[in-house]
UniProtKB/TrEMBL annotation:
Listed InterPro entries: FN3_dom, FN3_sf, Ig-like_fold, Neural/epithelial_adhesion
Species per Swiss-Prot/TrEMBL record: Helopsaltes ochotensis
Keywords: Disulfide bond, Immunoglobulin domain, Repeat
SMART domains xrefs: FN3
SUPFAM superfamilies: Fibronectin type III (SSF49265)
Superkingdom classification of source: Eukaryota
Gene Ontology CC annotations of this record: neuron projection
Domain Fibronectin type-III as annotated: residue spans: 5-107, 111-207
Name of protein: NRCAM protein
Length: 207
């Protein structure tokens, strides 16, 4: 098997899900056989928004021939990763380079995990929601938009409300009685808004 590890491993983080890794080629005489390529082992150490350590699954990408760089796609935003690089010949892999730590920046969150509308009265509805399964950063707020729908399915004026990130419920007041409303709800990090969840509910007709 090869004798030495690739040197001077550098990671350039391109965005919240993509990084590029560079390394110096090993001297050919240390390969001790036919150079097949380089393998990059990388794994997520922890999510910076959750601090939950779980079973670490190592991923491996193989770059054929005498390449000295490769792309690592599909990373999770706002996470800490480690990687190392090994050279491969027909017999197997050489030793691993020292582990390199890198962080991915924040991304936009996934949609809130649920939106539930309860307690309809003549002029109010209660909204409850769950935070996104993948915050992908630090949540800074939620945005609620809603509008009435009339009997011919036309949409009325859209109202928008910003809600602090630590809230999980809201009572909407001053609504019209016996009216169907459509709700659009999403979460924000400093990078931007995540995908929205939609729901409909009706205020009651009379007490």
């Amino acid at each position: 098997v090869p004798m030495v590890a690739p040197g001077n491993v550098q990671v350039h983080v391109i965005n919240s899900t993509l990084a590029k890794v560079h390394w110096d080629p090993v001297p050919l005489k240390t390969v001790r056989g036919h150079l097949q390529g380089y393998k990059v082992y990388y794994w997520k150490v922890e999510s910076l928004s959750r601090r939950s350590r779980r079973h670490v699954e190592k991923k491996i990408l193989t770059f054929r021939g005498n390449k000295t760089f490769g792309m690592l796609p599909g990373l999770e935003p706002y996470s800490s990763y480690k990687l190392n690089v090994r050279v491969v010949n027909g017999k197997g892999e050489g030793p691993a380079s020292p582990d390199k730590v890198f962080m991915t920046p924040e991304g936009v969150p996934s949609s809130p995990s649920f939106l539930k509308i309860t307690n309809p009265t003549l002029d109010s509805l209660t909204l409850e929601w769950g935070s996104p399964t993948h915050p992908n950063g630090v949540l800074i707020s939620y945005t609620l938009k809603f509008q009435p729908i009339n009997n011919t399915h036309e949409l009325g004026p859209l109202v928008e409300i910003k809600i602090p990130a630590n809230e999980s419920s809201l009572i909407l007041k001053n609504l019209n009685y016996s009216t169907r409303y459509k709700f659009y709800f999403n979460a924000q990090t400093s990078v931007g808004s995540g995908s929205q969840i939609t729901e409909e509910a009706v205020t009651i007709m009379d007490e």
